[in-house]
Design brief:
Layout (H helix, E strand, L loop, with lengths): L4 H51 L5 H9 L7 E6 L4 E4 L15 H9 L1 E7 L6 E9 L2 E8 L2 H7 L4 H40 L15 H34 L3 E5 L5 E4 L1 H10 L17 H8 L7 E8 L2 E9 L5 E7 L1 H37 L4 H33 L7 E4 H11 L1 H6 L3 E5 L5 E4 L1 H18 L5 E9 L3 E8 L24 H5 L5 H11 L4 E5 L5 E8 L8
Parallel strand pairs: 12-14
Antiparallel strand pairs: 1-2, 1-5, 3-4, 4-5, 6-7, 6-10, 8-9, 9-10, 11-13, 14-15, 15-17, 16-17
């Protein structure tokens, strides 16, 4: 028997709402059990915490826990395990020495991974099903278990009131779906009458809301005989409006020309770029056919053969780089697109310069290693000479490794900032660690390192990056400031968001202040032999600046009044939690 449209529609609605209601009931029951199980786990966790507090007092472990279990509910099982998973105490097992190692128990495995764990399973000792909860405290585990019996399951099970409510709502929706299906069936009849009226030429005296269902053939007849023209006009108007909005908001300068080179439309950015390029500013897009800057464009349009519909050229004017593109359409109309690529060109030149700098910096240690090794291979040297050349080659390899490591760190700061973990960093402790790490080079150069930092100078940041800031500044002073200098680090100011630091030395400084603004550039040298002669990768201060910027701070370099260099920078404070 063929079902009517109303019956098929009702059946579809019925299946959809039945599946939806079933899913809601299942999810609600599952979430209810989950929340109640979590409540039981919290209860067991509190028992574990009480047991841990009791164990912190001196005395026999068994006596303490035996006296404690008297206070717990009778069905609570308490187990104490050492760090290896061996059972030390169990209130329901007398001889714990006979029990097997519990390290592989699911709840203990979860503790090692997440700090706490739970599981519902039958005990391997007494074959009773338990809800287990375990947590690690120092060098031992405390596990608390509750029998997963009928009483516990009743606590976990959700109430059925939501189930009954959903069933009642589903029944009400069936009545509503029957009503809606009847409305749609009525629309089908109206649609058929409407189509017949159009085909017969009778005047249409009523409107029909067409449902988005099996109306393809009838809807096509309506579109062909009655609404096609109006709809097409509206669509064309809407498309034109969207195109105009896109052209006006585009970041490219656009101008459309007809086949006979009359201007049809252009945006403001096209005129702006055009006035930058041409000699005489104006508002006439036709200037591209007369100004010498566009000679290549004009030559392409004049000699267009019909085979090439695209042309692109670059123009450099007023210190800016532009690309000009021509796209010719099938009807011989065309568009001219102007883009300002100055930033892209600067980026390209910077990358090119960076590549050259890297190659230049790599060449020195590689050439040194090669030279020392070639000498050893080509000449017969005594052991002392061989060791000397090996030592030289090793030092060059260290320089090469340091350069690669520093380049990798800068790249990671710029491209993967999210990979750095933020935490509170105690600046005083960090400086103590730094001074201990640099004890040998400080003594060799007779450098005194001292600081005046408040005890509450704790910044919010990545410890490794903050360490690299002070490490690279200190290395820079040791290498370049001279012997017998004093390094002073101070916290000269603070506000609600930042701590402000000063890092200075009383060394030779940089007499020519024109170099100060370029100190943080990669591989920049005040003089050509400055870095190579004293070691270093040439990236230390660049790492400092990138690390400070990563922490939303700022840094400047200046000559200190007492001689030497001074670096002023700020780092974000750890914000105090607001009291409730």
């Amino acid at each position: 028997m063929k079902l009517s449209y109303k019956q098929r529609l009702f059946l579809c609605f019925f299946v959809i709402f039945a599946a939806f209601s079933t899913g809601v009931i299942i999810i609600e029951q599952s979430e209810g059990r989950k929340h109640k199980t979590e409540a039981l786990k919290d209860r067991l966790a509190s028992y574990a915490g009480v047991a841990n507090m009791a164990l912190m007092h001196r005395g026999s472990t068994a006596q303490i826990l035996d006296s404690l279990t008297v206070l717990f509910p009778k069905n609570i099982r308490l187990t104490l395990l050492d760090a290896l998973g061996n059972v030390i105490y169990d209130n329901i097992v007398g001889k714990v020495g006979a029990l097997e190692n519990h390290a592989a128990r699911p709840e203990i495995v979860m503790v090692r991974e997440k700090g706490e764990g739970s599981n519902i399973r039958a005990s391997a000792t007494n074959h009773v099903e338990y809800l287990y909860y375990a947590k690690r405290y120092g060098s031992y585990y405390i596990r608390v278990a509750l029998p997963y019996d009928i009483q516990t399951k009743k606590v976990v099970e959700s109430y059925n009131i939501f189930f009954y409510y959903t069933i009642a709502l589903f029944a009400a929706m069936l009545l509503l779906m029957n009503f809606v299906a009847g409305r749609f069936s009525k629309s089908i009849k109206q649609l058929r009458d409407f189509t017949w009226a159009i085909e017969s030429g009778d005047p249409v005296t009523f409107d029909v809301d067409f449902p988005q269902d099996e109306l393809g053939e009838i809807g096509a007849k309506i579109a062909e005989n009655y609404e096609q023209l109006n709809r097409s006009k509206k669509e064309v108007a809407a498309e034109r409006e969207r195109l105009l909005q896109h052209v006006h908001s585009s970041e490219e300068g656009l101008c459309f020309f007809s086949a006979n080179r009359t201007v049809e439309f252009y945006n403001g950015l096209f005129i702006q770029y055009l006035n930058t390029i041409v000699d005489e500013a104006g508002c006439d897009p036709l200037a591209i056919f007369s100004d010498h800057a566009f000679d290549k464009i004009a030559a392409f349009l004049s000699g267009h053969s019909g085979y090439e519909n695209y042309f692109e050229a670059q123009i450099f004017r007023q210190g800016k780089h532009f690309t000009v593109r021509v796209n010719i359409f099938e009807d011989k109309s065309f568009e001219v697109v102007i883009n300002d690529i100055t930033k892209q060109e600067k980026t390209r030149l910077m990358k090119q310069e960076m590549t050259g700098n890297i190659a230049h910096e790599l060449r020195t240690p590689v050439a040194g290693i090669r030279g020392y090794l070639e000498t050893m291979l080509s000449q017969r040297l005594d052991p002392e000479k061989q060791r000397y050349f090996l030592s030289k080659a090793y030092n060059q390899a260290l320089s090469l490794s340091e350069l690669i490591q520093d380049m990798g760190l800068i790249t990671k700061i710029e491209e993967l900032p999210q990979s750095f973990h933020l935490e509170p960093v105690d600046i005083n402790q960090l400086l103590k660690d730094l001074k201990a790490d640099l004890e040998v080079p400080l003594q060799e150069k007779e450098v005194e390192m001292k600081w005046n930092i408040s005890d509450n100078a704790v910044v919010n940041g990545n410890r490794n990056l903050i360490y690299s800031i002070f490490r690279n500044l200190t290395d820079n002073a040791i290498r370049h400031a001279g012997n017998g200098i004093t390094i002073c680090i101070s916290e000269y100011n603070e506000d609600k968001d930042f701590c402000y630091f000063s890092f200075s030395d009383n060394g030779v400084g940089i007499p020519d202040e024109r170099h100060l603004n370029r100190l943080f550039e990669r591989f920049y040298r005040v003089n050509e032999g400055r870095t190579r002669g004293s070691g270093g990768s040439g990236l230390g201060l660049s790492i400092v600046k990138n690390a400070v910027l990563f922490h939303k701070g700022a840094i400047v370099a200046k000559n200190a009044p007492s001689g030497g260099l001074e670096f002023l920078f700020k780092l974000p404070k750890v914000k105090a939690e607001s009291s409730s």
